[in-house]
Amino acid sequence: MTRSFLGWPAFPEAAEREVGNRQLRENLGRATGTIRGKRALLAAERPDWEQLRDSAAAIKDQVLAGLEQYLLQVEEKVTAAGGTVHWARDAAEANRIVTDLVRATGEREVVKVKSMLTEEIGLDAALEAAGISARETDLAAAIVQLGDDLPSHVVVPALHRNRTEIRDIFVREMGRHGRPAPEGLTDDPAELADAARLHLREKFLGAKVAVSGANFVVAETGTLVVVESEGNGRMCLTLADTLISVVGIEKTVPTWADLEVFLQLLARNATGERMSPYTSTWTGTTDGDGPRAFHLVLVDNGRTRALADPVGRQALRCIRCGACMNTCPVYRRTGGHAYGSVYPGPIGAILNPLLKGLDEEQTASLPYASTLCGACNEVCPVRIRFTDVLLDLRAQVADGGKHPVERAALGAVGAVMARPAAWKAAVKGAGLVGPLLPARTPVPGWTDNRALPDVPRESFRSWWKRNEGERA
Amino acid sequence: MTAAREEILRRIRAAAVPPAPEPPRHYLRHAPGLDPDDREAVLALFVERLEEYGAEVLRTDRPGPAVARVLAAQGARSLVVPDGVPAEWTADWDGRVRTDRPPLGKAELDATDAVLTGCAAAVADSGTLVLDGGPGQGRRAATLLPDLHVCVVRAEQVRSALPGALARLDPARPLTFVSGPSATADIEMIRVKGVHGPRRLAVVLLS
């Protein structure tokens, strides 16, 4: 059975469980430390890094402002190049379309290129329910799938696992899904990668149907782009007879030339490489080369909801590089699972509420999963102002009554502040009783995760009156 | 299906996103710190970047002996050669040469040691080769399944940075950008060379 984040606890509870896991904290610290170092070197190598970010952010804003026109252009160009375009309002509709397309081929197994969107919509489980086995072929995605685990990072979904855990998963699980792990497999990363190569080779050679996402879709030409490292993407995109690409509507870029901006930013920021080893682009189908049938499924699933949020819509610029999570002091301690979504870290803290709304306690807890330190703002290749969006979402949570303690407290403060006499009495009173309070006065629901500041003996009002007021 | 399309487009209109300004384009169009007209510097950077990512590079004006040397050094005994590869490139090698006409099956490609191609463009800054399926490059499966890819690059094909290469490519063709051999960093973010794509990449730079 495929695990999912359905019914996941709110962030504080999930995070408390995760930070208690010492092995996890060590794995996270090591992996995010390595990648931050590599990224910093490669970003510093570009004297025009800030200009590339300016362009990337502005191009994505252009996409969001003209999304209808760009999507219609994608549809026209892909169709003209021999592809078929499908539209899906939500996860269930997208899963139904893909399931029907696979069924029509008569195949019972599909190979998959890593795609966060197919994780988001739960495609593997939907296919499994229809009797279709979907095999993940990206190394990290395969580690997650074989371990019946959940993704914890958008670039490296198995970031929370160390080499020994991965060896154990391979030894235990590979034989149940095809070629078993080699005898005497050690936890050397090169040996583990080789075991994955051998295990998946027979699946690639026999694959008739492949499912992918896309990093970019070029409106001007109808071209899809997949960036990857291992060659599993090339295998799926090239060897299958039928290719089904499931893509969020925000992945569009206007022109072919725009790729020069994103392809120069993405790998540097994601994995600390100048380019990832493989970038594949294709436009519809090509006679005698690659799949004979190509389907593009354009998915909304909350993206238009995010688009309607004037502050939050900038989250749709995201190109899933993962730099915000690698640098986040919260993510680096809790890991990805605490966020209860395939999109963890700072981008998850804003994107999930924007896609799903704030009605659920779990989603409403995410804008608070941040210290507002702003490190994510600094590394984002498309200049998402995470802290602006986090604060705006917190305001929406408070206005919507989703954080009852904060709402009650602010409501009471508001009532008192509206009456100067009451306010004066309140601050004076606080100064008098402050020193009598124990150092860590608990306020349920507030001080669980925050320290209460010391109450000063004298209020600012009274200090002002005593000093400046006398001079006036 | 049409209902979904109309509904999504309606939601986009309802979101009423205000117009966005024309994006600035103030980034470099050439590799940083390099005079793009200094061809020798561009080629030197190309070689440096390829080697950094673990590709083997040979600079020569005689492709035949260079190709033969690479194949022998890597222990290749069979080679796929797509249509359009000049006969001169394989003239000095005495191993088994297979054409891809009629197209070889996946298992046959998988059982072949190496593939020899040209390329459509190359990028110095990122050590990138671009294949577009044109003459001498073959279909994508042929450059994917053999474990060694030998690519002959003509010096004039090397652009200093990505913008110069993208402008020369035809997006209607299926393109593969190759920057070093297959690799992964999925285990503890440690880079391991060689997973599913060709585990070895050799470049013969003709100048």
UniProtKB/TrEMBL annotation, chain A:
Keywords: 4Fe-4S, Electron transport, Iron, Iron-sulfur, Metal-binding, Repeat, Transport. The keyword Membrane does not apply. Pfam families: Fer4_8 (PF13183), LUD_dom (PF02589), LutB_C (PF11870). Residues 308-330 form the 4Fe-4S ferredoxin-type domain. GO terms for molecular function: 4 iron, 4 sulfur cluster binding; metal ion binding. SUPFAM superfamilies: 4Fe-4S ferredoxins, NagB/RpiA/CoA transferase-like. The keyword Oxidoreductase does not apply. It comes from the Bacteria. GO terms for biological process: lactate metabolic process. This is Iron-sulfur cluster-binding protein.
Automatic annotation (TrEMBL), chain B:
It comes from Kitasatospora phosalacinea. It comes from the Bacteria. Residues 108-206 form the LUD domain. This is LUD domain-containing protein.
